[in-house]
Amino acid sequence: MRRILTIAILLIAVGLFFMNREVSVTHFDTSTLKRSYQLEYNTTVQMGSNRNLFVFKSQIDMYAFSHLDETIVALSFSKIEINQQELHALYSKLLKEIIFIKILPTGEIKEFSFYYNRDNYRNIKQIFYTLETILTGDKSYTITQQDSNGKVEVDYNRDKNSIIKKKIKYSDSSSIKIVRSDFITKIDSTWITNLKGVERYRVSLNDTVIENQLNFNKIEDNDVELFTLSTTELLDIFKSYNNRKKINLVKDFQEQSSIAKMKNIALDVEQSSRNVSYQIKANGKVQDIKGIIKNSKDEKLRLKLIEALRQSSTPQAQDALMEITMDSEFIKGDRLDALASLGFIDMPKEDLVDFLMETYYNEDKGLSSTAILAIGNLYHSIENRDRQNEIISNIKDEYANKGTNGIPLLRAMQNIGASKFKEEIYQSIKSNNFFEQYNALNIVADIDSEETKQELLNILDSDVNRELKESAKKALKSLSSYKSEEKNL
């Protein structure tokens, strides 16, 4: 009887054990896989009373293939829709190139490979970190995973082909608190078919609440025509991303028939822009450099040449940067880079300040804001005292009529010297515009005086939100008069 009871208990224990186990499942149980998905990703950022919504929609065509006991997933984006025009231009450019993700059989993301600098892809990486679904043989398990914010503990609960996934807490960041995390994933024998969910977290450093909503759905019976490349060709592209450490300018110069004479200038990434600037000074072929910037598809090369023009500081180079700024045939980002670089010219031309002020009045907000920042940076390179005083007077006049464009003016004031704009900055720390007030509070500590201390104490006594009060406290503690009082207490 005792033996029968022992066997019964053992059978129950074994049954309970296997009830909490599934047959170990891995992703991508086929050598190749082609699929299409529809992605919708919405991010809401709430900072005080200010709210910003980012909506991103796209079709994603996927081609997964095996390589050295791992799966490489090639992703192509199309039909991109973004609710913010500037971000639409940025992501349309970034996502023209294939993205590769190396995934282990368990579903763990091992590596991303991008055509451009990986820092540009933070939001894209976060989307795929959210899609990351790690499988074990258990029904319930907790795993530490990585996402764009750091290491995070994730709880899994599985019922056949449905998985409920919840992020619990970040293990290496005390400033990010997860308020909500609910994702439901559907899988088949190959990979994810559907994922839907929401996550909300609070960043304590600036009291910001961020909410991400994600819908990721397999498009049934969709012919993935975009991936006409073979596995070998895709693997070659994947490897080339990791080997893109040098730029050969010769090929780029030769492709531009009008500037083929420049083919003798060949540089790689390790050489500095200053070397290019020396050659600009030596041969004066500024217009040829402009042609390369206009026609090259290599972003890093274009940025290098804009910086070379800036470093050469010749009158011809300054003219070229001004021309790039105002020529709509150049890429918008290059125009802004050229304009910003004018603020760091060593020996500015007499008409450069006039050009920057004229650009400040441009209807394009990006050009206008960048121009006033450039003026603030250029101030210290101007030897003519009357010209410096004219800049200060112009900025004060513009501040008096600033409307909603006060933040770039404040930053220009800081670059020139906050003490020269004391009244304007004191006025901005009492602004009804949150972002203007926030920026002013981060600048006002540069005016180290009793008057500043009293202005900050008034802010602390007023009815402003927590983040502004924290900024005021930080500014107050950096004042020498406040430090002296603390020391005597």
Secondary-structure map with pairings?
Blueprint lengths: L1 H18 L12 E16 L2 E18 L2 E13 L2 H10 L4 E5 L5 E5 L8 H10 L8 E8 L2 E10 L2 E9 L5 E12 L4 E12 L4 E11 L12 H12 L6 H7 L17 H11 L2 H10 L3 H14 L2 H12 L5 H10 L10 H9 L4 H14 L6 H16 L5 H11 L5 H7 L5 H10 L6 H12 L4 H12 L2 H9 L1
Antiparallel strand pairs: 1-2, 1-11, 2-3, 3-4, 4-5, 6-7, 7-8, 8-9, 9-10, 10-11
Helix pairs in contact: 6-8, 7-8, 7-9, 8-9, 8-10, 9-10, 10-12, 11-12, 12-14, 13-14, 14-16, 16-18, 17-18
In the CATH hierarchy, what is the superfamily of the largest domain? Leucine-rich Repeat Variant
**General shape:** flat
In angstroms, what separates the terminal alpha carbons? Answer: 82 Å
The helicity comes to 40-55%
Total domains, how many? Answer: 2
Task: Give the overall pLDDT as a whole number.
Answer: 79
Structural class: alpha+beta
Strand order of the largest sheet: 5-4-3-2-1-11-10-9-8-7-6
Oligomeric state of this protein: single chain
The third-level CATH topology of the largest domain is: Leucine-rich Repeat Variant
CATH-scheme architecture of the largest domain: Alpha Horseshoe
